[in-house]
Amino acid sequence: MIDIQAKLKEIGPYVEEADDNMLVCRCEEVTKGEIRKAVHEGIFTIEEMRRYVRSGMGLCQGQTCGKLVKSIISRELKVSPVEVEPASSRAPMRPIEMEILAQDGGVEHE
Amino acid sequence: MNNTADVIIIGGGVVGCAAAYYLAKRGISNVIVLEATKSIGHGGSSRNGGGVRQSGRDVRELPYAMYGIKNLWPTLSEELGVDVEYTQKGNLRLGKTEEHLKKLQTLASNAQSVGLDVRMVDAKEVQEICPYLSKDIIGASWCPTDGHANPLTTTLGFYKRALEMGVRFFTDAQVKELKKVQGKVRKVILTDDTVFEGETVILAAGYESRYIARTVGIDVPMTRLIDECLVTEKQPPMFDIMLGTAGADFYGHQSRHGSFVFGSDCGYESVTDMEDPSSLTTNSMTLSASCRAIMDYVPALKDAKIVRSWCGWLDDAFDGVPFISKVDGVPGLILACGFTGHGFGTAPAVGLMLSQMVAGEDTVVDISALRYDRFKPVR
Fold this sequence. Notes:
The structure holds 2 protein chains of 2 kinds. By secondary structure, chain A is mainly α. Chain A has helices at residues 4-11, 32-40, 46-53, 66-77, 98-101; strands at residues 2-3, 23-25, 30-31, 96-97. The radius of gyration of chain B is 20 Å and the shape is globular. Chain A binds chain B through residues 1-6, 8, 41-45, 47-48, 51-52, 54, 58-59, 61, 85, 88, 90-92, 95-99, 101-106, and chain B through 1, 38-42, 46, 152-153, 155-156, 159-160, 163, 166, 168-173, 190, 192, 194, 232-233, 257, 280, 282, 284-285, 287-289, 291-292, 294-295, 301-310.
């Protein structure tokens, strides 16, 4: 069980850092500062972070920035990165055109 | 840790977070929200297509759906300090057969009878409203005050604002049972045996509400039903209306960000089961079936790439409308579950009404038709 208010108190307020403007998620153009700030607003999991700032929600699905986002969140929460669960993998593995994906199955078989 | 509060809300989804916010807004901030999983909004709140609509709804739901759209949604982003991407540009519910049109006409007439501005439009007008749609569409219902929003940021926005106002949230806090003290609901016990105590308990835990309600002798007649969503890569701005179909093939919209978000199914949802429901495994047939359904209505999207798909369980009430109700035999308990896959758009209004029920006031509209004990024997 995680007491969000207690944890927010423990980690203290968001303090700006020199490299907060650094782009972390290139697909969705999310900066390190946006991720750090969100943690102090109560966004503690990668799942929530994706929904809140869109990190890892673009074309590459977080394959590039996933580890980085994880390390930023864990540092901000003062926990080990292994305690921050990775995001769920979602089908399809690579972006596929609707017209092509639509050929998979259906009623007409040869 | 102080485990006592005026109100304990079970379920950190959009309904629970909205109720927490509206309680805090009226000065009741000694509130605890318990979320079973590690993430706020892990359930249906993040697993829907973001419709904020009135058309197509049961007349029992329409008064508060209309209230929310008129009074709560327009200022929500500003109130929460989070962009919920509310877009009110209308909703077409499309028909391809005479049967479809008959169904849409009935829904439209019912909605008109309670004052909703919704009307039938012909094929020509459909094309005028949205030129990207298939020429096979012979008509639709059109509700200009419907729209859509981002369910992810709406849920987390209510959460963030409620946190700022002092509401206490606990994640990874799964409720096992409720216990009465002196005839009134009082204790909320977690699976790890932690005990919380509250004067009032709001049960907004989706389908899991059924197990929890049962621990104080109440059965809520609903089942669990799977639903899937998909999202495309960013597209150039095409249209900002919400789409649905009479055949319920799919529904969805283009998000502000450019992606299209659709919900759809493959036809086997009512018999879909999983050994571990929390694994949320998508069905291998659904994604391709969804693409076929979408292209049948929006052929212009055939080259759009699908980026991801996901699924969620919805709490499917026996008669298709939720249970928002105090419970006679269990004073202090308020049910807010059974939203049947269309709870997102009404969540602000439901949150507001829950805060009024806690305070002992009349709700903004009458919801006695949503009582938990509305079912009578059929023979």
